[in-house]
Design goal:
six-stranded mixed beta sheet, three-stranded antiparallel beta sheet, 189 residues, globular, 24% helix, alpha/beta
Protein backbone atom coordinates (compact mmCIF):
# COMPACT_ATOMS: atom_id res chain seq x y z
CA UNK A 1 0.00 0.00 0.00
CA UNK A 2 1.27 3.48 -0.86
CA UNK A 3 2.33 5.98 1.75
CA UNK A 4 0.62 9.34 2.30
CA UNK A 5 3.01 11.16 -0.06
CA UNK A 6 4.10 9.66 -3.35
CA UNK A 7 7.62 10.91 -2.55
CA UNK A 8 7.71 8.50 0.42
CA UNK A 9 7.47 5.59 -2.02
CA UNK A 10 10.80 6.50 -3.64
CA UNK A 11 13.94 4.72 -2.45
CA UNK A 12 16.33 7.17 -4.09
CA UNK A 13 16.28 9.91 -6.72
CA UNK A 14 18.42 9.07 -9.75
CA UNK A 15 17.94 12.25 -11.80
CA UNK A 16 16.74 15.60 -10.46
CA UNK A 17 14.53 18.04 -12.38
CA UNK A 18 17.63 20.14 -13.21
CA UNK A 19 19.53 17.11 -14.52
CA UNK A 20 16.53 16.10 -16.63
CA UNK A 21 16.17 19.62 -18.02
CA UNK A 22 19.83 19.80 -19.03
CA UNK A 23 19.75 16.37 -20.68
CA UNK A 24 16.55 17.20 -22.60
CA UNK A 25 18.16 20.43 -23.86
CA UNK A 26 21.24 18.48 -24.99
CA UNK A 27 19.13 15.93 -26.88
CA UNK A 28 17.04 18.69 -28.49
CA UNK A 29 20.22 20.46 -29.63
CA UNK A 30 21.50 17.25 -31.22
CA UNK A 31 18.22 16.76 -33.10
CA UNK A 32 18.12 20.42 -34.17
CA UNK A 33 21.68 20.20 -35.50
CA UNK A 34 21.11 16.88 -37.28
CA UNK A 35 18.02 18.16 -39.13
CA UNK A 36 18.99 21.81 -39.67
CA UNK A 37 19.84 21.26 -43.32
CA UNK A 38 17.10 18.79 -44.20
CA UNK A 39 13.35 18.44 -43.91
CA UNK A 40 12.21 18.57 -40.29
CA UNK A 41 11.30 15.18 -38.85
CA UNK A 42 7.91 13.97 -37.71
CA UNK A 43 8.13 13.48 -33.95
CA UNK A 44 6.17 10.46 -32.75
CA UNK A 45 5.86 10.05 -29.00
CA UNK A 46 5.13 6.73 -27.39
CA UNK A 47 2.19 7.31 -25.05
CA UNK A 48 1.81 7.50 -22.22
CA UNK A 49 5.24 7.27 -20.65
CA UNK A 50 7.02 9.71 -22.95
CA UNK A 51 4.49 12.56 -22.72
CA UNK A 52 6.45 14.81 -20.33
CA UNK A 53 9.78 14.09 -22.01
CA UNK A 54 8.26 14.68 -25.45
CA UNK A 55 6.67 17.99 -24.40
CA UNK A 56 9.95 19.31 -23.00
CA UNK A 57 11.95 17.93 -25.92
CA UNK A 58 9.88 19.51 -28.71
CA UNK A 59 9.83 22.87 -26.92
CA UNK A 60 13.62 22.83 -27.17
CA UNK A 61 13.94 21.71 -30.81
CA UNK A 62 14.41 24.77 -33.00
CA UNK A 63 12.70 23.40 -36.14
CA UNK A 64 9.15 23.53 -37.55
CA UNK A 65 7.92 20.16 -36.28
CA UNK A 66 4.86 18.00 -36.59
CA UNK A 67 4.03 15.82 -33.59
CA UNK A 68 1.93 12.70 -33.18
CA UNK A 69 1.53 9.83 -30.74
CA UNK A 70 1.33 6.08 -30.90
CA UNK A 71 0.29 3.96 -27.94
CA UNK A 72 2.28 0.81 -27.27
CA UNK A 73 1.70 -1.24 -24.15
CA UNK A 74 4.18 -3.80 -22.92
CA UNK A 75 4.00 -3.71 -19.11
CA UNK A 76 0.33 -3.77 -18.18
CA UNK A 77 0.22 -3.38 -14.40
CA UNK A 78 3.50 -5.22 -13.77
CA UNK A 79 7.16 -4.28 -13.52
CA UNK A 80 8.48 -6.59 -16.24
CA UNK A 81 7.76 -6.25 -19.95
CA UNK A 82 5.43 -8.89 -21.36
CA UNK A 83 7.76 -9.13 -24.37
CA UNK A 84 4.82 -8.68 -26.74
CA UNK A 85 4.02 -4.98 -27.13
CA UNK A 86 0.49 -4.18 -28.27
CA UNK A 87 -0.22 -1.14 -30.44
CA UNK A 88 -3.54 0.30 -29.40
CA UNK A 89 -3.46 3.75 -31.02
CA UNK A 90 -2.42 4.54 -34.58
CA UNK A 91 -0.53 7.62 -35.76
CA UNK A 92 -2.77 10.16 -37.46
CA UNK A 93 -0.08 11.96 -39.46
CA UNK A 94 1.11 10.56 -42.77
CA UNK A 95 4.72 9.49 -42.24
CA UNK A 96 5.24 8.13 -45.78
CA UNK A 97 8.44 9.46 -47.30
CA UNK A 98 9.42 11.25 -44.08
CA UNK A 99 12.00 10.95 -41.36
CA UNK A 100 10.49 10.00 -38.00
CA UNK A 101 12.01 10.53 -34.58
CA UNK A 102 10.39 8.05 -32.24
CA UNK A 103 10.41 9.44 -28.69
CA UNK A 104 10.47 6.87 -25.88
CA UNK A 105 10.67 7.25 -22.11
CA UNK A 106 12.81 4.12 -21.69
CA UNK A 107 14.31 1.45 -23.92
CA UNK A 108 14.90 -1.75 -22.01
CA UNK A 109 14.19 -5.10 -23.72
CA UNK A 110 14.06 -3.44 -27.14
CA UNK A 111 10.81 -5.24 -28.03
CA UNK A 112 8.66 -2.11 -28.19
CA UNK A 113 11.18 -0.08 -30.20
CA UNK A 114 11.71 -2.95 -32.63
CA UNK A 115 7.94 -3.32 -33.10
CA UNK A 116 7.46 0.43 -33.60
CA UNK A 117 10.30 0.75 -36.12
CA UNK A 118 8.71 -2.04 -38.19
CA UNK A 119 5.32 -0.38 -37.82
CA UNK A 120 6.66 3.00 -39.05
CA UNK A 121 8.52 1.32 -41.90
CA UNK A 122 5.25 -0.32 -42.98
CA UNK A 123 3.65 3.15 -42.90
CA UNK A 124 6.28 4.30 -45.42
CA UNK A 125 8.75 6.23 -43.24
CA UNK A 126 12.06 6.57 -45.07
CA UNK A 127 14.07 6.62 -41.86
CA UNK A 128 13.42 6.24 -38.15
CA UNK A 129 15.55 7.59 -35.33
CA UNK A 130 14.94 6.78 -31.69
CA UNK A 131 15.26 9.37 -28.94
CA UNK A 132 15.00 7.83 -25.50
CA UNK A 133 15.41 9.55 -22.18
CA UNK A 134 16.57 6.33 -20.50
CA UNK A 135 18.45 3.40 -21.97
CA UNK A 136 18.59 0.18 -19.94
CA UNK A 137 20.96 -2.08 -21.88
CA UNK A 138 21.16 -4.61 -19.01
CA UNK A 139 17.60 -5.67 -19.93
CA UNK A 140 18.10 -5.76 -23.72
CA UNK A 141 16.69 -8.90 -25.34
CA UNK A 142 16.14 -7.69 -28.89
CA UNK A 143 18.68 -5.98 -31.10
CA UNK A 144 16.80 -3.36 -33.08
CA UNK A 145 18.00 -1.71 -36.28
CA UNK A 146 17.21 1.87 -37.06
CA UNK A 147 15.67 2.55 -40.45
CA UNK A 148 17.53 4.44 -43.18
CA UNK A 149 19.70 7.23 -41.80
CA UNK A 150 18.18 6.88 -38.34
CA UNK A 151 20.19 7.69 -35.23
CA UNK A 152 19.93 6.59 -31.61
CA UNK A 153 19.69 9.55 -29.23
CA UNK A 154 20.07 8.46 -25.63
CA UNK A 155 19.78 10.54 -22.48
CA UNK A 156 20.90 8.54 -19.47
CA UNK A 157 21.97 4.93 -19.06
CA UNK A 158 19.58 3.54 -16.48
CA UNK A 159 20.71 1.04 -13.87
CA UNK A 160 18.66 -2.13 -13.56
CA UNK A 161 16.09 -0.79 -11.09
CA UNK A 162 12.37 -0.18 -11.46
CA UNK A 163 12.15 3.59 -11.96
CA UNK A 164 9.24 6.01 -11.96
CA UNK A 165 8.62 9.72 -12.41
CA UNK A 166 8.76 12.26 -15.21
CA UNK A 167 6.18 10.23 -17.15
CA UNK A 168 7.30 6.75 -16.13
CA UNK A 169 4.79 4.86 -14.04
CA UNK A 170 3.93 1.87 -11.95
CA UNK A 171 0.31 0.83 -12.47
CA UNK A 172 -0.41 4.31 -13.98
CA UNK A 173 0.87 6.12 -10.85
CA UNK A 174 3.96 8.25 -10.15
CA UNK A 175 4.08 9.81 -13.67
CA UNK A 176 3.72 13.26 -12.08
CA UNK A 177 6.93 13.12 -10.06
CA UNK A 178 9.25 15.93 -11.23
CA UNK A 179 12.31 13.64 -11.03
CA UNK A 180 13.13 10.02 -11.84
CA UNK A 181 13.60 7.74 -8.87
CA UNK A 182 13.76 4.12 -7.82
CA UNK A 183 10.43 2.84 -6.54
CA UNK A 184 10.67 1.00 -3.22
CA UNK A 185 10.30 -2.76 -3.92
CA UNK A 186 7.63 -3.19 -1.23
CA UNK A 187 5.35 -0.96 -3.31
CA UNK A 188 5.26 -3.35 -6.28
CA UNK A 189 5.97 -6.78 -4.79
Amino acid sequence: MSSTSIHDDILTVLWSPDQLSHKVSDLASQITNDFSSSSPPVIVGVATGAFLFLADLVRNINLPLTVDFVRAESYGSGTVSTGVPKLSCDVKLDVAGKHVVLVEDIVDTGNTVCRLISYLEAKGATSVSVCTLLDKPARRKVHFELLGDGKFYSGFECPDYFVVGYGLDFNEKYRNLPYIGVLKPEIYK
